[in-house]
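Table 4 source record.
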Amino acid sequence: MRPLLEASVSTTTTLTCEVEPGDHLIDGDPTQIRQVIMNLVINAGEALHDRPGAITITVAGRSACPPDAVHVAPDMPPGPCVLLSVTDTGSGISPEHLGRIFEPFFTTKFTGRGLGLAAVLGIVRSHRGALTAESAPARARPFRASPPFKTTPSPPKPTKTR
């Protein structure tokens, strides 16, 4: 997935992945979780406006949903979750926009944009997780998605025999 993420941002952007030691199994659809990461990285890359900057993807286990989560699925189970965080060194999100960034078609960019973060919210909710965005103008802005932790590995898929 890393080559796809790197191709989605400017060549002046440094992309870093930090994974906390341990197993971080997510109870969810791998394709949709990849879409969450991709959308957050694309959004972070656009926030850099082709200026040199950095995007950091962090994966960590947590004993519970972050207490500051803004969008929490009503059926999010209590207990451990995986924290997926995407932080960039862009210009930040203004307070008047922060409350609207997950609305479909809301954008501060050109027309025809504005579904990426709405899709992220939909995917995180469908996975019974939580989502947080925080920002202040002129400082790094993290997006944190917290889907539930998968407590047991999936059983191996049966192999076909001839």
